[in-house]
Amino acid sequence: MRLLVVEDNLLIGDGLKIGLSQEGYAVNWVKTAEDAEHTLQAEQYDGLILDLALPKKDGLSLLKQLRLADNTLPVLVLTARDTVHDRVQGLDAGADDYLVKPFSFTELLARLRALLRRANGRATPKLWHGDLCLDPAAHHVTLTDEPVSLSPKEFAILKILLENKGKVLSRARLEDSLYGWNEFVESNAVEVYIHHLRKKLGKDLIQNVRGVGYMINATP
């Protein structure tokens, strides 16, 4: 999953980038609404974490602009504005969720998982494919009820493929889900992770559509 963080507080922004990256998200971080506008025009994201108290143009204006343009990107507002009026204003402007600073990182992760789950049209948190089960909250995978040890990158690739069962995802799309800006990407990284997943979960789980990308079939 690829996230954009818009936060002008250097300590919070850096902490979010590091913490979310450790959870397997590909994270890009900007500090102004103007930079966020340019980034969102140029790149695709699965979710947006948005501060409201930004320099010059505030986050609420950016949020309203996105919704007026029919941009349905899931947005989690993360702000120190904590009155009922502020929360109502943020949600009515188009936020999908609203979390007040100071915040618990574990709560932020849970809200983010719920937000992205709803955006993908799923009611249950766990991802199933036959006897394979992936639990995003516990960061845990089982096959026929037996735990399977995966690296963070292997887990991230399996998760995005399960969330898009029946769809072919290109290598570039998978790379985008794994790496943020300025992260070195080895030319065969995706192929290596796919190879490891096949060894651990079965060679027929992930299909290679030659010249297009990779997929997990819609049905086991």
Describe this structure in words.
Keywords: Cytoplasm, DNA-binding, Phosphoprotein, Transcription, Transcription regulation, Two-component regulatory system. It is found in: Cytoplasm. With 220 residues, this protein is an alpha/beta fold. It folds into 2 domains: 2-119, 3-Layer(aba) Sandwich (Rossmann fold), CATH 3.40.50; 127-216, Winged helix-like DNA-binding domain superfamily/Winged helix DNA-binding domain (Arc Repressor Mutant, subunit A, Orthogonal Bundle). Helices cover 41% and strands 20% of the residues. The chain is built from 8 helices and 11 strands. It has helices spanning 10-22, 33-42, 59-68, 84-92, 105-119, 152-163, 171-178, 189-201; strands spanning 2-6, 26-30, 47-50, 75-79, 97-100, 127-129, 132-135, 140-143, 146-148, 206-209, 213-216. The chain has a 5-stranded parallel beta sheet with strand order 2-1-3-4-5, sandwiched between helices. A 4-stranded antiparallel beta sheet has the order 6-7-8-9, with helices on one face. Helix 3 (59-68) links the parallel strand 3 and strand 4 (75-79). The longest helix has 15 residues, at 105-119. The radius of gyration is 18 Å and the shape is globular. The model has no long low-confidence stretch (mean pLDDT 92).
